[in-house]
Amino acid sequence: MTVWLAMALYSLSMSISPGPVNLLALSNGLNHGLARSFSYVSGATIGFITLFFLTGISVSYVSEVLPNIMIVLGSLGTAFIAYIGWQIAKTSQVSKQKNSKDASSFIDGALLQWLNPKAWIASMAGMTAFQIESTESLTVFSGIYFIVCYLSISAWALLGEKLQGLLNNPKKTRRFNQAMGWSLILIAGYLLIKLFD
């Protein structure tokens, strides 16, 4: 039971901390509402858990080739994160249509996780820190992580929706979107620098 609690706390610290996936959830919540954000939240959660589980299965092989994978995925990921940041930064107002097609999709969420160096590092660190060696342990850890990750990303989307009342005019919304967009671009730059350290 203690190991499960430690797994849950690790999952929470990695899932709730600010990063590209959570900032995009926040932006989606603000611009499209919580309900319209669930497709993205689901994609990001399932995308991460798939990555996490497959990493656990192939941890020894991935460990040997991780630097090459990280460089390729990190480069693609930072470019994608910067692109998403730019799209958010140029959004000028909250969508009045909750069914707007501008909301990030399930595929966007899943793809962002697979291209996010933070997700790869969280997966590898979790496997090595908890010394996951059996499929049973991996399945338990993945189940815990799924619940915590889903709730954490949803919380960011809910926070975004709650901000709609505070950012109720186009000028405030534009400033917020610019701040979120440029934050993602800065995160992409930081991740790129760390990738080549």
Automatic annotation (TrEMBL):
Question: Which regions span the lipid bilayer?
Answer: 6-26, 38-63, 69-89, 138-159, 179-196
* Compartments it resides in: Cell membrane
Question: What are the record keywords, sorted?
Answer: Cell membrane, Membrane, Transmembrane, Transmembrane helix
Membrane topology of the entry: Multi-pass membrane protein
* Pfam families named in the record: LysE (PF01810)
The superkingdom listed in its UniProt entry is Bacteria
Source organism per entry reads Litoribrevibacter euphylliae
Q: What is this protein called?
A: LysE family translocator
